[in-house]
Design a protein that fits this description.
Blueprint (H helix, E strand, L loop, with lengths): L2 E6 L2 H17 L4 E6 L1 H5 L3 E5 L6 H6 L1 H15 L4 E7 L2 H13 L4 E4 L11 H8 L2 E4 L4 H7 L4 E3 L14 H8 L7 E5 L4 H21 L4 E5 L15 E2 L3 H7 L2 E5 L2 H9 L3 E5 L3 H10 L7 H6 L6 E3 L5 H9 L7 H16 L5 H12 L2
Helix pairs in contact: 1-16, 4-5, 5-6, 8-10, 9-14, 10-11, 11-15
Length: 368
């Protein structure tokens, strides 16, 4: 039986790879799916070769080099068996571009889903991508033209988060699912899906919420945590919700989001938000020299302007963030109205549901 090797390296990639695996099994039940990732891929029927956790930051990546080298050797050995008919790479470019090069050397076609963010930094990767990628499935509308100009066969497939948002609950329905009262204000916290992000963000997320509780009596606060994150007793003085993030966003009036896909989820859910991020001092200093775009939040990157306020590194101060969030609660206020208009603009650019099916169809056509 022909194999498809799927490689994802963190929680968000595992989620999208899991949805893709479900669609691919429907499109090509004759294929055996193997890969590396997490719980979502395993639940979709992918035979797991190894489970790995993504890391962020330049210094953090260096600490994981030995584990990555061991995993790469495992994947190369799998490709050399001759059973693998296609490699599907999901995000995680620092590692996955090396897998792509190994696949090319082994004569295995490569489908890259959620391509490296060369529009932000490391534009030099385009040459490597053109050499090792057979087909690119892009999830942001401005990516294919850049990749095609570099000689990469690229197609916009829409953003995969829309596959999970085709029917969103009303605020009352979402609050009912989460056990929250229908009336009153709710703040949702999204500190990140990686352990290193939790360590750097959690204390100040709690501080922001505590300050808003004083400023807005009766405010209820919930924290959304990825299933892979363990939180110690006493770290979070608010209810921890591990349900779908869209339910949390629809239940909330306002959200505080770590920079990343959650900011796009907030746009789809029509939940005004502020965006924050903090990394190590060394990683931040390097990033400031390399990153060539003015915004860090995907929501703002897609919009091409600052729809949501951003607080990065030293600017991430609880008092400043609380002030920005406080202005977003007023349903008749200018800040909330203007942001909701911006969120609608972003939603219109994300394509239509069905990304997983479209990528599965690409994959099915690439397997001999």
């Amino acid at each position: 039986m022909r194999e498809v090797l799927i490689v994802a390296g963190e929680a968000s990639g595992d989620l999208h790879a899991g949805l893709l695996a479900v669609s691919l099994r429907r499109a090509r039940p004759d294929l055996h799916l193997v890969g590396t990732g997490g719980l979502r891929m395993a639940a979709a029927g992918v035979e797991m070769l190894e489970r790995i956790e993504g890391v962020v930051g330049f210094i953090e990546v260096l600490r994981h080099v030995p584990a990555h080298l061991r995993l790469l050797r495992t994947l190369v050995a799998r490709m050399r068996t001759g059973r693998v008919g296609l490699v599907i790479l999901v995000d995680y470019p620092g590692f996955n571009l090396r897998v792509a090069a190994a696949a090319r050397a082994a004569g295995v076609p490569v489908l890259y889903y959620i391509t490296p963010q060369v529009w932000a930094w490391k534009k030099g990767r385009l040459r490597t991508m053109a050499e090792v990628i057979t087909k690119a499935a892009c999830i942001l509308p401005f990516e294919p033209p850049m990749l095609r100009a570099a000689g990469i066969d690229a197609e916009f497939v829409g953003h995969p988060l829309l596959d999970r948002a085709q029917v969103l609950p009303s605020r009352a329905e979402a609050r009912g699912r989460l056990g929250l009262d229908e009336s009153g204000e709710v703040l949702a916290l999204f500190p990140g899906s990686r352990a290193v992000e939790i360590r750097r963000h959690l204390a100040d997320f709690v501080a922001v919420a505590r300050r808003l509780e004083v400023l807005r009596p009766g405010l209820r606060v919930v924290l959304s945590a990825a299933p892979t994150i363990d939180l110690r007793d006493g770290e979070v003085p608010f209810p921890i919700i591990r349900a779908a993030s869209f339910d949390v966003l629809r239940a909330a009036d306002v959200a505080l989001c770590k920079s990343g896909t959650t900011t796009l989820e907030a746009a789809v859910a029509d939940c005004p938000c502020a965006i924050v991020y903090r990394t190590s001092a060394v990683s931040y200093a390097i990033a400031r020299r390399l990153v060539k775009i003015p915004h860090i939040g995907l929501l703002n990157i897609v919009a091409g302007r600052a729809v949501a306020p951003e607080f990065v590194q030293d600017a991430f101060r609880p008092e400043a963030v609380a002030a920005a969030l406080g202005a977003l609660f007023d349903p008749a206020g200018e800040a909330r109205r203007t942001m909701r208009e911006g969120l609608a603009e972003v939603r219109a650019q994300l394509g239509t549901p069905g990304a997983s099916e479209r990528v599965a169809a690409m994959a099915a056509g690439l397997v001999p």
